[in-house]
Amino acid sequence: MSHAEEQKKNRYTEVDIARGIGIFFVVLGHAIKQTGVSAVWIRILTYIIYSFHMPLFFCLSGFVSAKILQMNRQERKRFAFSRARRLLVPYFTVGLIYIPVKLALSGSAIKPFEVKDIWKLLIGQNPDVSLWFLYILFLIELISALLVNTYNFRSIWYGSFFLSVAIYWANLDIRTPKYLFFFLMGIWVRLKFEDSRKAGYEDAMDGQDLLAFLALVTDIAAIIFLYRTTITVTMMLTSLCGIYLVLWISSRLVYNIDGEKKEPGRFTRILLLLGLFSMDIYILHEPVMTVVRLVLWDRLGLQYILCTAVIFFSALCLPIPISKWIIRKIKLLRILLLGEAH
What we know:
By secondary structure, this protein is mostly helical. It folds into two domains: 239 residues, no CATH class; 66 residues, no CATH class. The chain is built from 15 helices and no strands. Helix 2 runs parallel beside helix 12 and helix 5 packs antiparallel against helix 6. It is globular.
């Protein structure tokens, strides 16, 4: 079996779909906040999206990084360098490109940027504020590569849970320990998926419809409680329920009731496309949003709903052809903007 065939065999389509769902909500969450307009329904929708979408991406990142557990010292070094290239090169490239743009637009920006803030790039505060995820994910993967192995995985994972709960409870903006738990949970989910395949079951979420319903009910109740009380530790529960529901929905889109893979419909193919280009969309969506907002909201004064819809669909869709036909065609751009060497 060739390397490409082996990769295809070991690929989990449902995880690509989950990434597509995740990036959909990331872009939607950023789009509805672009204009600074505040209303009850906007706050509720924001609460729903932000209750799970970033923990989901850390979990999915852990899912595809489960090989860390089996790595030797040299492999861990190579992994750390490859993740630095993949995550930090785009982080700094886009940040540096974005600085003059952000300075020029500080008067109309939701979060103004000043020259004295440039050094903060080094501590994860990017002028393209959405890119904090790349910086924190690198730190988490570096910590995992240095510390986590098969023997201590569960102990570190359990410890990270209590640390994450404490940070949520105190409402502290300390992201690395806050999201480490979800990254390690992704590794655990991958192990469970692999166990399911070894047992002869392709669909690891088969027979969990009742559990998914209970998770949905719990999630709705927790989001309502969070909205009314703003007790942030509740987000641990909404994150866990949201992650589970996204994985369950993704599996239902891939497998039929008999646990066999089904032919993907149009909706599934769209989510797969979004998932496969999720990094590209994540890198490019903020600049697209900025341009569209400046034209439609700041200049033309378009009505909020229509303006937000155009911002959302532009930021979700335009990065795909831009990346496919320009960035991925030019090696230097592929390295600098996507962190891809090949």
